[in-house]
Every structure is written in C-alpha cells, then in structure tokens.
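Friendly challenge for the regulars: who can give me the structure tokens for this chain first? No prize, just bragging rights.
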Amino acid sequence: MTGKIGCLIFVSALGASACQSSSDGGNAVGASGESSSAGASPAAGASSQAGMSSTVGSAGAGATSGAASGVAGSPGVASGGASSNGGASSSGGASSGGGAGMSSTDVCTRWKADRADLSEGTWSGDVASCMAGDLSADARTNALRVVNLYRFLAALPAVTDDPTLDAGDQACALMMRANNMLSHTPPNTWLCWTQAGSDAAGASNISGGQAVSSVDAYMIDDGNPTTLGHRRWMLSNSLGPIGIGGTDKASCMHTLGGTGKAGKAWMAWPAPGMIPLQALTAARGVSIDTTGWSIQSENIDLSAAMVTVTLNGVSQPVTVTQLLPNYGTKYAIDFIPQGWKTQAGMTYSVSVSGVTPAIAYQVQIADCQ
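First reply, four minutes later:
Bragging rights claimed.
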C-alpha cells in the first residue's frame, strides 16, 4: 500500500471542510505520512479544495468525449467482481456490486433500513477544558452502519471500529473543533494538541461536519477533483478496522493501515448492479454528476483506459481524469457526465477499453425516496 494526505472541501451547516489521507507504500500509519495539504486549512466558510494544486493530476481531463475518452496515466483495470456479500470474485472484465441480482425493492429496503436513524448523538467533551470526551454510542453505531451500507452496495465486506482508533480520532476531532481548522499535521501550538490526536489526524479522513453526515460527504467527495480520496478510502480493499471520533462540529475517521483483504481487482462507484439514486445525491445537495463516477484499483494501471458510457445504446459524453495515486488505491480514474444527469429507472452501461482485460458493467439506478 502507499499513502499521502489531502483535503476535500464541502460546505456543511457550519461551512466546514473535510480532508482525506492516502497511504504510502508500507509506511507506518501516523502523522508522519506524506501530506499533500500544506499546513492547516480554514474550516469555517471554506468552499474550495485546501492545500492541493488544482492543476496537479489533471492531465487527460481537458476534453469532453462522446463515445470514449482517453485518460493518460495508468494501464489496465482487471476484472474481479464480488458476490453480493463482498466475498468471491469472478473472472473476466465484469464486476458485481452488492446490488447485483437484487430487485430495486430489495436494495431500497436495505437502503432505508440502514438509514432509518442518522442521528448524530451527543458529544461529552468540552473545548474549554480540552476534554476529548466521546460520542454517544448511537452516533458511532450510525456512522459505522452507513459506512458499511456503502461497502455493501460496492460488494465489499463490512468493517468494524476499533476502540483504540476511536480514542485517537476523538482526540483528533477535538483539535479540529478547538481550532476551527482542519489539518493532517497539526502543530503542537494548536489548542488542545496531543500526540495521540496528531497521529490520528495523519491517518484519518477529517471533516468539518459531524461523524454520521460526513460519511455521505466522503462518498460524493465534493471539492476533491484530483484524488476523490475520501471515496477511494471508503471503497478500499484494505479498509478496516476503522476509527470514528467526533464532536458537535468536526469529526475524524481512521482509514490508514487497515488489515482488510477484500481482494477485489477493481472497484467502481456507482458500483455494478442496483444502486439507489439517493446514494449518489446524499451529501448536502451535491451529486455524483458533479464530482464524477470512478473506477479504482490497487494493482491495475489505468493510464491507457478509454471510458464509454451508454444509455439505451446511445453514448453519453463524459470527461475523464486520471486521479492522483495512493489514496486508498494506487490507481484511479474519474469520469464526469457532460450534458446529462444520472436518472432513476435507467440502466447505464460502462465499458473501459485499452486495458487488459477490458472492463464492462451495468449500473441500474433505483429511486429509493
């Protein structure tokens, strides 16, 4: 595995932002991971990506294509589907998501059940006394359940949270809350700075929003066009166990150094199979049509990939970008709809040529309102 750290910005009720980490080949988890964010980024009122160059990694993103778009940077996406429980993979270029073979009713039932309680719970800490406190059990349970809902839809195994990692992320969240800023490398001059919190900051997705709602934001990944790092960590083979810490305004989710062994050759979002439209539009009014569909792989270089999206046999134009490496996976591409929007009741066919083997899958969109 490999890794760095970067920031994603999204607007929360508090005008906050979020950051994601990326792992670096074999490096120990912690604050020492390479950071692509420069120092601390203001949390309040932030509306653009912090600490990352908007030009880095944008090669291949300039042109809009109809039938296919070229991407410069990483060869081939291997196939490797998974069963609906994230277990076995299939050969060839087709992959299955957790909703593959399921009816829209079944997928929507799962979606609604797992999101019936999205309460943020309570925080027992205090900024004035630098007491990290803890999230109430319902908040952490709710956040973890939403993480695993997305992983189910992508046919990835569920993860658990680790109390030790939770404690580190709780200290991390306190620092972000106390300083009203986000940083993966917080200086020891920060209010409420602790080594444990600093270490967790260097190994976590960091958000200016509360723990439960931030999970949706990580999957949309607004303001993070060169990496989609939050999403890629959420869909990483290696994710888990995770840590979850939060306050009334900021939260941290430990992602680096996982021991997961899902073994999927590639992952896509939206994933193959039946996907709720609401899963693509759940974060603060921003949709995947703005941030893009994505494919990621740890071992398969996607530099020669050519992406085609069709609806009822008609090509849907997309703009393709090769994403920066080592955020959850080494390789990834993003493709953004141009002049069309993802709609419920439709089946989109995605094919990726220029890779070995070629990738082909279908995404069915269900309205789970």
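The first helix runs from residue 104 to 114. Confidence is low (pLDDT under 50) at residues 4-16, 24-92. Your move, everyone else.
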